[in-house]
Amino acid sequence: MPIETWFPLAIYYTDLPDAAAHRDSLLGAVLALEEAAHERRITEETAWTGDVHGVERIHDDPNFAWIVEQLEIKTTIYLKALGVDLNKIDLYIQRSWPIISRPTQRILDHRHLNAHLSAVYYIAVPQTGDSGSLVFFNDTKMNEVAPGLWADYSSGLAESNTLNFETVTYAPVEGRLVMFPAKQRHGVEANQTEELRVSLSFDIILTSAETSDAGLYEFLSPPPKQWKKLKHKQAL
Ligand SMILES: [Fe+2]
Predict the structure, then answer these.
(1) Which of 83, 145, 122 lies closest to 201 in space, CA to CA?
(2) Residue 18 in contact with residue 66, Cβ under 8 Å?
(3) Contact call for residues 176 and 122 (beta carbons, < 8 A)
(4) What domains can you pick out in the chain, each with its CATH number?
């Protein structure tokens, strides 16, 4: 049938070959960070996320040097595939944190609007069942020709197929790195096993390269070293 699909969302994933060798040390480092962190600030139904517990800079922690190096390599591959001119941009990890999902815990849907790229790396994944997939939501619904046609309550679809799906799921895989546009709405389903699922999250920012074509400055932030911090009212 002559139907073509356009404007695809590009989600990158790769399985890191050295993952097994780093699994236990990464897992130990994450559990130690949780132990030393602030008092729990979220409900019992929500996975423990380091970013709201004072653990949001694992990129500065030598225990995570290997995965940060992997992230640097794979981010380059992903952006090259997207056609980005890597000579004109700089990349920064803005924030990075561990996530520990215990039985029944999940992460509600959200976007990382503070960043441009987001990544997740799975350190430890239960082998006994469904420990919760990463879910991406189709918010643009470009093929929903009449608004509401796809909604559960309208029953306007005779079948689900690749032209009308509303979500896509990625089951967690130990040693897998997944990368996606940070603005893409996503969430994590509940851990339905009796074991821990442990992962790392990264938020990455693109800025103009210091030597960049000035034209890009309209769209990207200049390098942070060129910024000047202003005193806000309370500091005056
Ligand atoms: Fe997220």
Answers:
(1) 122
(2) yes
(3) yes
(4) 12-132+170-227 (2.60.120.620)
176 Cα–ligand 1 center, Å: 16
> Cα dihedral sign for 47, 50, 51, 57?
negative
Q: Is the pTM of this model over 0.85?
A: yes
Give the sheet arrangement for strand 186-188, strand by strand: 107-110, 186-188, 134-137, 167-170
Q: What is the mean pLDDT of residues 103-122?
A: 97
Please give the distance, rounded to the nearest whole angstrom, from the Cα atom of residue 120 to the centre of ligand 1: 8
pLDDT tens sequence across 7-45: 999 999 999 999 999 999 999 999 999 999 877 778 889
CA dist 132 and 171 (Å) reads 7
